[in-house]
What we know:
heterodimer; A: Beta Polymerase, domain 2; about 15% helix; globular; B: alpha+beta; 2 domains; 5-stranded antiparallel sheet; 3-stranded antiparallel sheet; about 15% strand
Amino acid sequence: MIADDLVLEKGVTARDQWVTVPAERIREVLSGLKADGYRLLVFLTCVDHLIDASREFPARFEIVYQLRDMDKPVEIRVRTFIGGDSPRIDSVHDIFPPANWEERETYDMFGIVFTGHPGLTRILMPDDWVGHPLRRDFPVGGEVVEFSEEHQIWQTAPDEA
Amino acid sequence: MIESPGVTVTRTGEQGAFGGELLTVNFGPHHPSTHGVLRLIVDLDGEQIKRVQPVIGYLHTGIEKQMEALRWQQGVVVTDRHDYLSPPINNLAYALAVEKLMGVEVPPRAQVLRVIMSELTRLSSHLVWMGTSGLELGAMSMLMYCFREREQIMDLNEEISGFRMHTSYIRPGGVFADSTPRFLEMLDKFVREMPGHIDEYEDLLTMNPIWRARTIGIGRLPAEDAKVLGATGPMLRGSGVAWDLRKSMPYSGYEDYDFEVAVSNDCDCYGRYLVRIKEMREAVKILRQALDRLPDGPVNVDDRKMLPPPREELETSMEAVIHHFKLFTEGYTVPAGDAYVAVESGRGENGCYIVSDGTHKPRRVKFRSASFVNLQALERMALNHMVADMIAIIGTADTVLGDVDR
């Protein structure tokens, strides 16, 4: 189990067991849990808590790891909080191989940098995309589409064409 | 670099085992056998695959972002569209997650109807898989046979929900509408006829020498590798691991049904085919049990704060009018917190993780899609096989690109 000094908070929400741990020791926590039998990383994702007045959060980004012990079967959700302009956390792709693409997706969508990841590039959005779409401050509805008046090609088209 | 329409070949400069150079070949994205728009960058030594790098994102539609802009009850419509071959199962994962966070339990009749829709969807998803995979590997007539039965499932969908594909039938709080007598009649006929049709498919494929030559020993994925790579569904069961969420972590009353988990120890493409055939037979068994036990009663929770009142109440009750107005202008709120629910789709674990900040719109919705995770096992399966086997491997992995890219 996780050592007591690593647990910042724990509880149960909607029958789901969860534990909050410090971000800088995430690798230690996850490899410990893997040794305990939680061998499947169900998913890994991020939640942006920008301007969320419903609860108290230590930082803006919450990284969520859902782990499962397939023999019992039981699940545990590991949460950790990171903030800052370029949020960073250690990669766990070598502990749980499925994390490889999930971390790329989280980087793509939230701009979380996973240090130690072998190829942290965009996975779903085009490589030249600017911004991270699932952040809460990413504008919605302002997308410039081809043939709209704001579109560059439209604006620079020759008048006589 | 040699270019021809749709194919780009680059020399890597690395030496292969056959005295030639390793070639990098671009496979897809607009290739019919990639089941959508999957691009693979394949390094070849002669005709042997040495490296595979999948490039995805061509079907990315920002579903998770859209969910944040929609109210809780509107989100159902979007969930239909990520794994477009199994809409009711996607609905179910989302509905169960919302209900879990709200602490709502749906009536027994709704639970059975949900099981019926899930199993019909599993059948239709496997039928599409078998038809298209057969087509790719030379069994052209499979598509005609499989789509004949899929058409009946579409008719059933239409009868119960009004839609053929994106049904949005399963919603938080229950289902869209009660089943009609005609639906039950049609379903009864379908369940009686389907085992015979499955025998027909088996006659065409199971002992078919071409099908066996193309699938046996191809795309091996040992059980340990499948577990480490996080594969679920027929990919995992085809590798001999008896893990099915319907049995291991039952939801929606699956613990009351008598069915077997389909497992094959072959660990190859043929094993995954056998698993799907067996799953279709088990799905028919579950449908028969569900039809026999379908209890009477309501199909929605009796909560006016969550679901609109019946039409006739609006004419007599002022309170009903207020509830109706509030629901359709503002929607309902879900208590702050998060919940994760996983259901077994035709492709594996289809999960939904929702985070609520206590308002009428979700803070975050994450779909854990089986195809996205299973696709990561592609390189392991394709290594040292021929290019032509790649088609069989992609086919039996049964990834839906809408589900991969979301």
